[in-house]
Amino acid sequence: MTATAAGLSAGRTVVRRAPGKLFVAGEYAVVEPGNPAILVAVDRYLTVTVTAPQDRPGGPDVRIRSDLTARPAGWRWREGRLVPCGGDGGALAYVVSAIETVGALLAERGMSLPRADIAVSSRLHEGGRKYGLGSSGAVTVAAVDAVAGFCGVELSAGERYRLAMLAGARVDPKGSGGDLAASAWGGWILYRAPDRDFVLDLARRVGVGRALAAPWPGHTVRPLPAPAGLRLEVGWTGEPVSTASLVAGLHHRGRPGSTARGRYTTASNQLVEAAAAALERGDDAGLLEQIRTARRELARLDEAVGLGIFTDRLTRLCEAAEAAGGAAKPSGAGGGDCGIALLDAAADRHICQVRRQWNAAGVHPLPVRPAAREPGRNRHT
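Given the sequence above, the corresponding structure tokens read:
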């Protein structure tokens, strides 16, 4: 550890938070590099707090507490990796990978990560059940930001995303990283994923620091304006689902190049670009039409491949919103978790009616709103 790093960490507490996310359009297609998706960050946050330990010389190098684990978990550094040394660490893979990735960046700068206590607190769950708002992405972004800040390294939005992408891809290389981008930038974004195998190999070959600054083929992020006269409503089915399992199912049943998957990808790319253009020109009607198209294309893919994207509750969520003149669809992988609806913001009666119908169908309206883009998070990559 350099004297500078030690001085920064002694007695220091750093708190960082990251918002959850919802997919608006483009899920499944965005898993392949270069294909676009629209996401929106929401005002439910996951918070990571890093402090210097006060009472344990000779104890773990890193101790992690989370409201999703029964007790704290301890870890020791060994050849650049964290090795567990006690506690419940089963749900902490993304936090550990985030710490290791920041540790690698620090090592390239002649620094080491000092001993640290890390606490994770999430509003993206209820009673241990996830809402489907991107908790893995939010915890990865918040963790890289907090650990870097604890060591005196301040990150731009692009650096937060790229460090989180490297960390997340080590845990799940099939994830698109759209949740990471929404958590890093906030607001509405148009996102294209990089080739995760490429960026992981790049970091291995040239180091984390140089990988952050190098071009990532296929990857872009573009902030989008919020829809002018529409309200985003979110319904939680209460049915947790594994996004990774559904994406793996698509890879197994609808391999790249298959007719159904190829048709879906082409249609998705076209409708996402059209939806982004509608947002940028303030065309609410045009946006609603593209969201309805997105629902139809997901249903066609589901019918062809048999993933189980549309549950009974998600179908009823969509039908209630469309009957009120809005547009709706599953958000993300489907199979449970959340659905979204865009409704006329001035039609309070219709919005209340949709919420009542959701409740009757076992869908819980979530009191979430789009999260404002935070200062300093507007740079494109």
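The CA atoms of residues 258 and 264 lie 10 Å apart. Try to locate this feature in the token string yourself.
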